[in-house]
Amino acid sequence: MTEKTMEHLLLIILSMLVAFGPRFIPLRIFSTRDIPKWFNEWMKYVPVSLFTALVVKDVFIDTGAGYVFTGIHNMAKIIASLIVIAVAYRSRSMGLSVVLGLIAVTLLAMVFTV
Amino acid sequence: MLEVLKIALPLCLSYIPIGLACGILLNVAGFNVILTGLVSILVFSGGAQFLLASMLTANAPMHTVLIMLFFLELRYALLGSSISQYLRNTSKKFLYIFAVSLNDENYAVNYLKFATDKSWTPKDALMVEHYSLLFWTFANIVGSLIGNLLSVDLAIVDYALTALFIYMIVMQVANKLTIVVSFVAAVFAIISMVVLKSTMGLVVSTLLASFVGFATEDYLVKHGKKRGFLLKKIKPKASRRVISKSGDN
């Protein structure tokens, strides 16, 4: 095995632990006890905040140039994102949203900057 | 067993295109077929695997990748605690196995089945998880294999992750406050990433924005505005139509 493969293997094992903790610990605790209300109320807004931040990073931030705000430069991704929002809202299908999003961004990239 | 497969099938099929894209990206990031299969089984999270791929391609240091991953996976704490009420009389070993392959989509299917079907057992729920795991891993491996054959434009395939997250945001929208929080998170994310010049900006903005949401809701509820403009329910959180297609009555 090469050094790179070993490093990736280590990363996978650590990732598994990082992924397993949040899945298992609350399941274990709350299958015998009640969930504290404040915990649920706070956790409720974590996914939407994180997903938004990740989308913003891809669409509006140029990480290669040292985290610069790009405004409307990535027009292809901005328009594709609006399409994905519409598709997700109407179809509520994950597969369709992703596939149409990919097709949209591929076609739009021919006209606009990605 | 086939009854459960019928319920899990729409979910399993929707995993194929995403799994393929994910396998291709992991291949570009330097994962071989075995590693791709392994990460699909052990981590089993579309978001996490896409993130791994894009951060490895960007040469992010391992601790940054793991911190981001932790925050990304933190949402499972919410899913796990909300489904735990249905898993009360199960063994510790069962919970362990259940937790390993819990993810957003099989949670959505199982939660709705538990809530609407009295005969739905924890064993059925685990089977849904395993069916989805099987399809996901298979699609990833195939993606990894074809990733070797064709050259892909990374900026474009990378967008699969963004599309996936946009889908998940839309699915999270329960009231107008969620939309407000999303915009607040967007502004915080831009400011904190530009200022901090790193992905730590994602962590900072997530903590700030979720706190704003939590505090606003708390304020509104305490002031008797539970049915007001911001907190009025828009639509159910889980996708009814997708679930009903999956063999639910």
Report on this structure.
The complex is a heterodimer of chains A (114) and B (249). With 114 residues, chain A is mainly alpha-helical. Chain A folds into 2 domains: 1-44, no CATH class; 45-114. Chain A has 5 helices and 2 strands, in the order H-H-H-E-E-H-H. A two-stranded antiparallel sheet of chain A has the order 1-2. In chain A, strand 1 (61-62) and strand 2 (68-69) form a beta hairpin. In chain A, helix 4 packs antiparallel against helix 5 (94-108). The longest helix of chain A is centred in the first third of the chain and has 28 residues, at 3-30. The two termini of chain A are 37 Å apart. The model of chain A has no long low-confidence stretch (mean pLDDT 88). Chain B starts with a helix and ends with a helix. Chain B is mainly α. Chain B folds into 2 domains: 2-172, no CATH class; 174-234, no CATH class. Helix content of chain B is 76%, strand content 0%. At the A-B interface, helix 1, helix 2, helix 3, strand 2 and helix 4 of A face helix 1, helix 2, helix 3, helix 4 and helix 5 of B.
Overall pLDDT metric of chain A? 88
Oligomer: heterodimer
In DSSP terms, counting alpha (H) and pi (I) runs of 4 or more, how many helices of chain A?
A: 5
Portion in strands of chain A: under 5%
Q: Give the SSE order of chain A as H and E letters.
A: HHHEEHH
Structural class of chain B: mainly alpha
Short description:
With 114 residues, chain A is mainly α. Chain A is built from five helices and two strands.
Question: Key features?
Answer:
heterodimer, A: 114 residues, mainly alpha, 2 domains, two-stranded antiparallel sheet, 5 helices, 72% helix, B: 249 residues, disordered C terminus, Integral membrane protein (chain A), membrane (chain A), transmembrane helix (chain A), Brnchd-chn_aa_trnsp_AzlD (chain A), transmembrane (chain A)
